[in-house]
């Protein structure tokens, strides 16, 4: 197919089909019947733009994006607007989740031009790909929002055509300036800083980050800042680490400037999210973010990466505090993923939409009348009190279930025991969940992304290890096997998979997120294959992505197509950036293997950025965790014993009782020379008295080996 084709419908309308019909991305396929002559990103579109000297209209979005769907309905399905687009532009549609390189480059450009960003992203490029104008959503006609008049999309299109044809030199100058700005961002060397020695000033540095986060803390509702409010998992992970340092340090007294301790900030935030509408109280799992400061009204889409990072954070908080609420949230969230987001082959799907039946949140909302039809009559008042349900509703006349007061307070008011209340609520939730399952479910983006799968794989592996859940280990193992079998071609890791087809070369984040997950799976299973695969993947990542001149890693490989610049992201966002995870993985591999080149590469990246990381913790949460690893005297645990034997399991239970983020765990049967040779940390470790034996090493020194849980506990 070389252009948009259409057929006449019996009702006199047209049905169009364009090139996107051949894509695998659900987002691109959603646009395959637009009257727009869409191209996917590639040489065919760029060559057409150059040959016809037309500007490129680049539209970037993703399947679960509400306003992306709105702009499609309003503009891309509008035949007159499509005619303008086809006549004057080469139109390219990109799924940001498949092509984070394209999204990252042009989002930086839009933010530089407008000081804001988001999706849908609309960018106008010269035929050689340089951006000269851009924005986000545009309405189909001029529209006033408060005091601001937003130009309609047709007006924008005609203005761009006029500028491109009548003021071409100004357009070229603008494009050149923006392209140079982008090039300088990716080529800039890391800022120099005096190196920090291991163990020196760790808590002092983290104190700075903690103070910055405390300044943004919402003491009433938890989290940081005001509406819209995002979970900000990585910042909370940093505070959990600071709490651990305080417990172990003589400098453990909280800075007097901080009103709340780090653990108080973490727990307040986790509890408010768990009780809020951002959490699916019936089915488990978290929505994308809250549109208000109270965590009540979410944007209802569910993203794989949010649930990966949040389940992991709640798991770590459970290990630190022992609060059963956090364990429940972990298990409900992972159970949701198993139920809704696992493909028959073992991959994890990407997202669930916010909308169903054309209405945002419809699947998740309840009226009192619906409760009265489903629940036992005596339970309705209790359920309404506990989940704050009213006839007026709290969202467009319906109710988002959330928890406003304690179960004990509701039980006391009803003059029943807490156990009875909780039993009745559990029964009621099951009834409502079964009814909800009969509703039309939100759309699901069933493409499988290597990097996002890596995030969720690590979460399942950690939950399997720390909660002793063999079922979670099976999910993790199946996922790892799927990724390594289906997402590689000729040794090259690929980015995306759908309908039996894997495509697009993997990016830095694909390599290092999967490496990170495989190391966690090795620690959970003691299966040496996962360690060996991780080791090989990281070596391949160094070859493909390392910036040997300026430090760190590029986002795209040396074998990638040529773009206007080679992006290098150093800031953590909704997910960690590839560089942050790479630094952490390098440090873990250095601990496993003793290869100092890994540690040196991580240090060379982290140390120059130290000031920036601690001053801006919300932008560098995962990088701060890696910095903590680099500067702390971490621990290595080497266990020799049959992994499934009782004496080995007893030692593992002691280690897995604690959250020790700056540690690594290796385990092997002493007769398995393949496993021991693959993991140098295990080498030359004889058994003590013929029993399973644990070796604990810290700061380049090892304690005496132990073979009883009591002796190991004493060294923790």
Would you write up a description of this structure?
The protein is α+β, with helices and mostly antiparallel strands. It is globular, with a radius of gyration of 27 Å. It has 27 helices and 24 strands. Among the domains are: 5-187, Glutaredoxin; 362-441, no CATH class; 635-714, Glutaredoxin. Residues 6-12 have low confidence and may be disordered. β6 (121-125) and β7 form a beta hairpin. It has a 5-stranded mixed beta sheet with strand order 3-5-4-6-7, with helices on both faces. Strands 17, 18, 19 and 20 form a 4-stranded antiparallel beta sheet that branches. A 4-stranded mixed beta sheet has the order 22-21-23-24, sandwiched between helices.
Short description:
This protein is an alpha+beta fold and 716 residues long. It contains 27 helices and 24 strands. The strands form 8 sheets. A 5-stranded mixed sheet has the order 3-5-4-6-7, with helices on both faces. Strands 17, 18, 19 and 20 form a 4-stranded antiparallel sheet that branches. It has a 4-stranded mixed sheet with strand order 22-21-23-24, with helices on both faces.
């Amino acid at each position: 197919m070389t252009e948009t084709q259409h057929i006449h419908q019996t009702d006199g309308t047209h049905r169009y089909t364009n090139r996107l019909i051949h894509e695998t991305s659900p987002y691109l396929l959603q646009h395959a019947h637009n009257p727009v002559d869409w191209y996917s990103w590639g040489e065919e579109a760029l060559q057409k733009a150059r040959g016809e000297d037309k500007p490129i209209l680049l539209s970037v979005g993703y399947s679960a994006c509400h306003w992306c769907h709105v702009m499609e309905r309003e503009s891309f399905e509008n035949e007159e607007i499509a005619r303008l687009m086809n006549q004057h532009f080469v139109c390219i549609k990109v799924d940001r989740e498949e092509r984070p390189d394209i999204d990252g480059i042009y989002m930086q450009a839009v933010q530089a031009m407008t000081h804001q960003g988001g999706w849908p992203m609309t960018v106008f490029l010269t035929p050689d790909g340089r951006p000269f104008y851009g924005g986000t959503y545009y309405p189909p006609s001029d529209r006033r929002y408060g005091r601001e008049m937003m130009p309609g999309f047709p007006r924008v299109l005609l203005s761009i055509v006029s500028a491109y044809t009548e003021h071409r030199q100004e357009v070229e100058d603008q494009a050149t300036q923006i392209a140079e700005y982008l090039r300088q961002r990716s080529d800039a060397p890391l800022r120099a800083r005096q190196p920090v020695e291991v163990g020196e000033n760790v808590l002092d540095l983290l104190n700075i980050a903690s103070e910055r986060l405390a300044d943004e803390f919402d003491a009433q509702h938890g989290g940081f800042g005001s509406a819209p409010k995002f979970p900000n998992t990585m910042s909370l992970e940093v505070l959990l680490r600071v709490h651990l340092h305080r417990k172990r340090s003589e400098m453990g007294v909280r800075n007097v400037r901080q009103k709340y301790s780090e653990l108080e900030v973490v727990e307040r935030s986790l509890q408010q999210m768990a009780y809020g509408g951002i959490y699916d109280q019936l089915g488990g799992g978290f929505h994308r973010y809250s549109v208000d400061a109270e965590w009540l009204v979410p944007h209802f889409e569910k993203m794989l990466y949010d649930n990966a990072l949040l389940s992991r954070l709640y798991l770590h908080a459970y290990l630190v505090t022992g609060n059963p609420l956090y364990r429940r949230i972990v298990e409900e969230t992972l159970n949701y993923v198993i139920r809704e987001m696992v493909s028959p082959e073992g991959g994890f799907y990407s997202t669930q939409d916010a909308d169903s039946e054309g209405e945002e949140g419809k699947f998740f909302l309840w009226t009192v009348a619906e409760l009265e039809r489903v629940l036992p009559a005596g339970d309705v008042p209790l359920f309404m009190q506990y989940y704050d349900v009213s006839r007026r509703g709290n969202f467009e006349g319906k109710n988002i279930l959330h928890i406003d007061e304690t179960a004990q307070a509701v039980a006391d008011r009803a003059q029943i025991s807490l156990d009875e209340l909780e039993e009745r609520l559990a029964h009621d939730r099951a009834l409502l969940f079964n009814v909800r399952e009969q509703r039309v479910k939100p759309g699901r983006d069933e493409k499988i992304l290597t990097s996002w799968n890596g995030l969720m794989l690590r979460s399942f592996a950690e939950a399997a290890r720390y909660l002793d859940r063999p079922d979670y280990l099976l999910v993790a193992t199946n996922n790892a096997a799927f990724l390594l079998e289906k997402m590689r071609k000729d040794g090259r890791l690929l980015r995306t998979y759908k309908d039996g087809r894997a495509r697009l070369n993997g990016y830095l984040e694909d390599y290092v997120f999967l490496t990170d997950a495989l190391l966690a799976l090795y620690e959970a299973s003691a299966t040496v294959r996962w360690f060996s695969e991780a080791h090989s993947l990281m070596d391949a990542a160094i070859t493909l992505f390392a910036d040997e001149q300026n430090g760190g890693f590029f986002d795209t490989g040396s074998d990638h197509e040529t773009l206007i610049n080679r992006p290098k992201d150093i800031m953590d966002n909704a997910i960690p950036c590839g560089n942050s995870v790479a630094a952490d993985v390098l440090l873990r591999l250095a601990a496993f293997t003793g290869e100092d080149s890994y540690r040196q590469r991580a240090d060379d990246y982290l140390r120059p950025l130290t000031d920036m990381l601690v001053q801006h913790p919300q932008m560098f949460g995962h990088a701060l965790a890696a910095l903590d690893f680099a500067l702390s005297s971490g621990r290595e645990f080497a266990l020799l014993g049959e992994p499934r034997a009782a004496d080995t399991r007893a030692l593992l239970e002691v280690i897995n009782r604690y959250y020790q983020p700056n540690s690594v765990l290796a385990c092997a049967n002493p007769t398995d020379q393949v496993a021991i040779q693959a993991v140098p940390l295990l080498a030359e470790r004889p058994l003590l008295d013929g029993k399973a034996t644990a070796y604990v090493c810290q700061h380049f020194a090892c304690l005496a080996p132990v073979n009883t849980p009591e002796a190991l506990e004493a060294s923790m």
